[in-house]
Write a structure and sequence with these properties.
Strand content: 15-25%
Helix content: 25-40%
Distance between the termini: 50 Å
Largest sheet: 4 strands, parallel
Oligomer: single chain
Strand order of the largest sheet: 2-1-3-4
Shape: globular
Number of strands: 12
Number of helices: 10
Bound molecules: adenosine-5'-triphosphate
Order of helices and strands: HEHEHHEHEHHHHEEEHEEEEE
Length: 328
């Protein structure tokens, strides 16, 4: 920016359009999602003025882009920049990413389509970064992961990886693991089980099993109040559930199982305490870091008008008394 000032070249917030395919990736580079910057989900308004000084676009985590995404980017950039013939509206793009990481959800990955002109014919420079800075303090582990990525691990390497599994007979003890360690799970059901176990451990340390002791206010469960079941064979018939069925759902069913009509997942019983790490699941304000996949921590809830703490009920979780509020 300083250099542009010196050269008297206009530099504004659209001179370099910093984007990433996912909200979480966009947050980590102080950018926005590619979809938001280039109107993937809406009509193009008159945005030429805003983008007239754009001379570079960055699209990070390109492995998440499908062939359709790239074609849409090409179309939208042509339309926004009012240059319908020039590929991507004539603005150079830097795509960065690693195709051995995650692929697009429900689309064809770019490397699988030979007819994708926007990808196969328009890329004119390819740079591979070969220095791995991430593992500077543990180069042996870095090399092992590199081989894992390229060819798959050897038998000896599998043994080394397994020796680091927490809870295994050879691996480190749970008490020696840093409190900010994160779990990697294969499925959402595994994630739910770990989250529930962490919550119960927290209750063991902080809560009472005595019904006469007032539950602590730093912990709160939020219960979905309008759970109904869909009558099989009908399109729109829903029935209320009996208390017994509801209790089973609150106790044993989680966000990985419950979808609403719009296919969004919901936890029937959200278990929260002050400081609990959470993952945001919507792109609310990507430039303000409130983006899908970004981490945050629970500080408190804003009750709806007309609801107060006198509406809290006490529920039992593994025998511990916990505050709960119902949302409908
Ligand atoms: N040139 C460099 N000198 C020193 N450290 C660096 C350099 N480049 C990157 N790093 C460090 O290496 C780590 C990984 O960098 P970065 O997140 O940019 O890599 P990446 O390839 O984009 O990773 P990902 O695959 O997760 O997107 C970071 O901790 C970063 O600070």
């Amino acid at each position: 920016m300083k250099l542009c000032e010196e050269l008297r070249v206009k530099f504004d917030k659209r001179s370099i359009v910093v984007t990433a395919l996912t909200g979480a990736a966009a947050v980590s580079i102080n950018g926005e999602t590619t979809a938001k910057a280039f109107a993937f989900k809406r009509e193009v308004r008159n945005e030429l003025e805003e983008f007239k000084n754009a001379y570079l676009v960055i699209v990070d985590e390109v492995s998440f882009a499908s062939v359709a995404d790239l074609q849409l980017l090409d179309e939208k950039m042509k339309e926004i920049l009012d240059r319908p013939v020039e590929p991507f509206g004539g603005v150079p793009i830097v795509f960065s990413g690693d195709f051995t990481q995650l692929s697009p959800v429900g689309g064809v990955p770019l490397y699988k389509c030979d007819d994708c002109i926007t990808w196969k014919q328009l890329i004119n420079v390819f740079m591979e970064l070969k220095v791995n800075h991430r593992f500077e303090k543990d180069p042996g582990w870095g090399k092992l992961l590199e081989r894992f990525r390229d060819k798959g691990p050897t038998t000896d390497e599998v043994a080394i990886i397994n020796s680091r599994v927490v809870g295994s007979h050879k691996g480190p003890l749970e008490k020696n693991i840093s409190p900010d360690a994160v779990y990697a799970t294969k499925t959402n059901v595994d994630r739910m089980a770990i989250n529930d176990a962490i919550f119960v451990k927290y209750l063991e340390k902080t809560h009472s099993t005595d019904a006469n002791v007032q539950p602590l206010m730093h912990t709160l469960c939020i219960k979905a109040g309008n759970l109904r079941f869909h009558v099989r064979g009908t399109r729109k018939e829903y029935h209320a559930m009996e208390k017994k069925a509801l209790d089973i759902i609150y106790a044993s069913v989680g966000e990985a199982h419950v979808q609403d009509k719009t296919k969004k997942y919901h936890d029937p019983l959200l278990k929260l305490y002050h400081g609990r790490p959470l993952c945001i699941n919507q792109n609310e304000d990507v430039s303000g870091c409130i983006a899908n996949g970004a981490m945050c921590e629970f500080r408190g809830v804003k009750l709806k008008p007309g609801v107060s703490i006198t509406d809290f009920e006490t529920i039992l979780i593994d025998g511990y008394c916990v505050n709960c509020v119902c949302v409908t």
